[in-house]
Design a protein that fits this description.
Blueprint: H1 10-26, H2 37-57, H3 61-88, H4 95-116
Helix pairs in contact: 1-2, 1-4, 2-3, 3-4
């Protein structure tokens, strides 16, 4: 089955869920975080599906791989930010976000590995 749209990619769908979950979780942060950790986390979370989408639209394997690496980097940023947020705001529930993030990171890793292999002839 050939994927024609980024919206068909499970990793994109899961990363959109992740972004929504991050917005939900950080919505309980104090207002002073609006331009701090909350903003950083939301931007990193949105960056993951955005880069998957942009890479897929670029149409070349090389470009797609580059944007998957960027998405993976944003996922690592978000992982770090969740660790920090948990220590600063221990009552915030990040259980679902962490689970989705782990799933997205595994999927991205698998896609990257597959795309780094030479194309089948």
């Amino acid at each position: 089955m050939l994927i024609s749209s980024f919206k068909e990619l499970i990793v994109w769908q899961k990363s959109v869920e992740l972004a929504k979950e991050i917005y939900k979780a950080t919505g309980a942060f104090p207002s002073r975080e609006m331009f701090g950790l909350q903003s950083q986390m939301c931007r990193a979370a949105v960056s993951v599906p955005s880069n998957i989408a942009e890479g897929k639209k670029r149409k070349t394997r090389k470009d797609f791989l580059q944007f998957l690496h960027i998405a993976d980097g944003s996922a690592a940023e978000l992982e770090t930010q969740i660790i920090i947020a948990q220590s600063v705001y221990p009552r915030t529930n990040f259980v679902r976000a962490k689970s989705l993030l782990e799933e997205v990171q595994k999927m991205l890793g698998g896609m990257i590995k597959k795309l780094e292999l030479p194309p089948a002839s």
